[in-house]
Write a structure and sequence with these properties.
Number of strands: 7
CATH architecture: 3-Layer(aba) Sandwich
CATH superfamily: Gcn5-related N-acetyltransferase (GNAT)
Number of helices: 3
Distance between the termini: 32 Å
CATH topology: Aminopeptidase
């Protein structure tokens, strides 16, 4: 498996990259998880988009959100791995890259995310700590998690 990645501001995405990342987000969040929600939330334009490719196929993605957009802290969101590429560690790869690029783009400080509760152990293993109460988002239990600044 030949992995490569790209990180781009919204304005720098090609129409093909934008189409592919929105398609993957829809495949996972809308179809697979059976959630009817508006994925395009007017935050994409202010974010950086991290795309992980295997042999030129988009296999994982995350959205890096500057502080003050979703939370007071910088954030990582829309973390996904294509169903065809699960179980081989790509979730860890995309998250480690996400943390690295948050630091490079936004500087030191805590990173927040809204985790689906089934992935609590995964995010804990990456240094995130659960904070607050479990909440329902589109029929799926979530909890906010924070990774302290470095």
């Amino acid at each position: 498996m030949n992995l490569t990645h790209r990180i781009k501001a919204f304005k720098d995405l090609s129409v093909y990259e934008l189409y592919n990342l929105l398609k993957l987000r829809s495949e996972v969040f809308v179809v697979e998880q059976n959630c009817v929600f508006l994925d395009q939330d007017d935050k994409d334009q202010k974010c950086h988009h991290l795309m992980l490719f295997s042999d030129d196929h988009l296999v994982a993605y995350s959205r890096l959100v500057p502080a003050g957009i979703s939370y007071k802290e910088m954030a990582i969101g829309r973390v996904i791995t294509a169903s065809s590429a699960r179980g081989i560690g790509l979730g860890r790869v995309i998250m480690e890259l996400s943390i690295q690029y948050c630091r490079e783009l936004f500087g030191a400080g805590p990173i927040r995310l809204g985790a689906q509760t089934y992935a609590l152990g995964f995010y804990t293993s990456l240094g995130f700590v659960a904070e607050g109460e479990v909440y329902d988002e589109d029929g799926i239990e979530h909890i906010e998690m924070v990774r302290k600044g470095e």
